[in-house]
Amino acid sequence: MADTALPSRRKETRTDAVMQAVRAKLASRALAAGDRLPSIRRFAATMGVSPSTVVEAYDRLAAEGLIRARRGSGFYVASAALPPLALADDRPRRDRAVDPFWVSRQSLDAGPEALKPGCGWLPADWMPIAALRREFRALSRAGDAVLADYGSARGSLPLRRLLMGRFAEEGLEVSSDQLLLTPSGTQAIDLICRFLLRPGDTVLVDDPCYFNFRALLRAHQVKLVGVPYRASGPDVGIFEAALSAERPRLYITNSALHNPTGATLSAHTAHRLLNAAAAHDLTVVEDDIFADFEPEASARLAALDGFERVIRIGSFSKTLSASVRCGYIAARADWIEDLVDLQIATGFGGPGPVAAGLVAGVLSGGGYRKNMEEMRRRLARARREVAAKLRELGIEPWLMPRGGFYLWCRLPDGCDSAEVARTALADNLVLAPGDVFSVSQSAAAFMRFNVAQCGDPRVMAALGRALERGGESRRARARGKAAFPDPTPGDNL
Amino acid sequence: MADTALPSRRKETRTDAVMQAVRAKLASRALAAGDRLPSIRRFAATMGVSPSTVVEAYDRLAAEGLIRARRGSGFYVASAALPPLALADDRPRRDRAVDPFWVSRQSLDAGPEALKPGCGWLPADWMPIAALRREFRALSRAGDAVLADYGSARGSLPLRRLLMGRFAEEGLEVSSDQLLLTPSGTQAIDLICRFLLRPGDTVLVDDPCYFNFRALLRAHQVKLVGVPYRASGPDVGIFEAALSAERPRLYITNSALHNPTGATLSAHTAHRLLNAAAAHDLTVVEDDIFADFEPEASARLAALDGFERVIRIGSFSKTLSASVRCGYIAARADWIEDLVDLQIATGFGGPGPVAAGLVAGVLSGGGYRKNMEEMRRRLARARREVAAKLRELGIEPWLMPRGGFYLWCRLPDGCDSAEVARTALADNLVLAPGDVFSVSQSAAAFMRFNVAQCGDPRVMAALGRALERGGESRRARARGKAAFPDPTPGDNL
Lengths: 493, 493
Prior knowledge:
The structure is a homodimer. Chain A folds into three domains: 3-77, Winged helix-like DNA-binding domain superfamily/Winged helix DNA-binding domain (Arc Repressor Mutant, subunit A); 100-126 and 369-478, Alpha-Beta Complex (Aspartate Aminotransferase, domain 1); 150-365, Type I PLP-dependent aspartate aminotransferase-like (Major domain) (Aspartate Aminotransferase, domain 2). Helix content of chain A is 43%, strand content 13%. Chain A contains 17 helices and 14 strands. In chain A, strands 3-10-9-8-7-4-5-6 form an eight-stranded mixed sheet, sandwiched between helices. The first copy, chain A, has a four-stranded antiparallel sheet with strand order 11-12-14-13. A two-stranded antiparallel ribbon of chain A has the order 1-2. The interface between A and B is large, with 111 and 112 residues. Chains A, B: One of its GO terms (molecular function) is DNA binding.
């Protein structure tokens, strides 16, 4: 029977065996740099496999750079050996300042053994995995253009149509030329900032706000002004005063469930915000990324304003997949037209047909809605349970959110959250200390917890130890003996 | 037999039938906004399908926004009907200036019936489609984290290891912390520009150069200086003079096969460029996107320089898939460290594990290399054949490239390529006129042709007509009667 007719798994095993044999020869110096490898026919006979298996194995070793093909003369051991793989390759550095990047990188680069109550997403197995797997199988049978072409400049029309349907459920009318797909929600905001801001402009954000807004706006070299966030939205009096005093160009906020507080913007606050924005010709970016976590829809700025001065952005990273990245911008059609050009200039377009097709496929199947219902139930339970456990450690939620996965909490008296977060790394515990969310740096006593990442019983134990050690080191410092290097006072980013 | 046990294709058909029935009721006004839909059990009986099929159909209609679920009370016709889909939705505007965006958007948004000798990519069926399909099937069985998590801040380590292997084949040593994955090659350059440039800086590009470099650098508000490109690379004398006179911060170029000319940088020119760059502390971005199209590797700036002042970028959009987008930056480790932060701030990371996994899977299988060999053979034949046909129309290649899919050609005397490109749109023919590639706007007599997109016999016929009409309209204008509105003189972008 021809080798190619074997089940692919057996063929895989044979290919691996040939690759291992070559690697062993390299390790034992039986083959050195520049040496010619055995011919395909000879090595196939030696290994008792078909020549096609050896070809496949040599091709893969060539792709890894261990060997190289010379046309018409066979395969040779590569002269430039790969540098050894540093074991600590991607591990985040622990000695950097506790700033917004610190949280991002600790979260992204934590090993699989880390516990991450500070991270901003759900565990992978909470996502609609079965629906994703189904869509990957469907894609394996999709047309060539879906698999290999760029797609249109605004992004997949079927996905934009689905977004229009979701907006229509809020009573928000939007046409397909008011929508632009972007590679992520963050890139949606970034593109808007490039379009509307110039260095030196002033931008309002909530205090506290999603920490990466601070990093993003810093990259745009703008002045940040924070507006204290209350239980029903930003403090409108301070917001109005800031508009008069600072003449900001933009206000960026989350509607639905606010990050990090989990609070809900009230209809009354939303209405007053928009009136103030109109009076001062302020543009508002509404980041709606947590919308699907709400039990019932709350007030939305875009729904009230109808895209006159509100730009809605969103993505599916929190509810569908953060690996298949896809975000969107909904705005005035003339702005979208300009944003299309800007996205071509800076990225040659947004997400390709594969990412857009995956998202559209999952959204339009029933699995997404069912998974969201289940997620909301699980999160409601997790919020209660985690809040109770945090209280046992003296950590008190600022409010109980209606939905989502965040609890914004006050630490026990005297605890500095950056210090606690830093010391927690010794236990492989990634935390999100309050000041990374705060423009005014007034949230050192707070910390954001992701209740979906607190299920492991080791989390509360490690958190308890970190609180203690944090306290000890404060006391040590108070006595003039730092237990570990001072946290950098920070670039105040 | 339970409905769920049916083959999925029959289940799909039934779900579609239920959806069609509901749509028909909406179209005939049997159901109007706010009406309750038949209960699931009742409609299942009416349609002769299982309740689960009706649930699936209702869920999909809800996802499309046609109906909405109210918890505990069934499904209702959505009150906000979708606006009608504009037929001309994504069609590019023909009345805009013939600038770099014009080519991008005509190419991206052309309908399937368009002929696109001006576009910058290969037809989808030239790509390694079978390998892509295999990787999609493999992904449908991948771990949850691959399908749903963000992945690491620098991007998939296996893909970076594969890149290290490819670099090693050039004798170019690079460690994994010198590599950052980006969502596309364009975004790689954009990130570097954000990192190194400030508004008002000067940047050198080739004249002609890839048109989107001009659009990208315009977005960075820098001054562009073009260096005439010769058959063996940029004119070194003018390059050196520009370094002294303009003190540019950056030079951005293609190595391997230059876009749009298809010319090859000679080792001698590369060496002199790098010496001049060293003398003036200039950083060089080497866009290596066409490397795999070369029959034999030519001189590379990064290979000579070793990442001291050269930054290598690349992507797989031209050879693997433009739908699965993934690019990379190879540079000094300390720069990469800063670029990681910048990519978090502006995009919350690069390509997710899905895109990186697809690219790594295709690259490490043998199919990619085989497909590239076949592509190179096909392209060599196509270059010869298309060059011969163009010559019949009086269109003369500037040189015959060693590889790739571009021919940079001089049009017959008196033809203005922007005018020809504009008039060609009447025949649904998308062309790439010379001046979009030229900082000095001195390439009006030139045009770039993609030989892989010239296989359709209608291309040469339509091109012939466009040349004639372009000539006629010039003569008409010369007599003071424009045959169509004057092309906007352009923002000189």
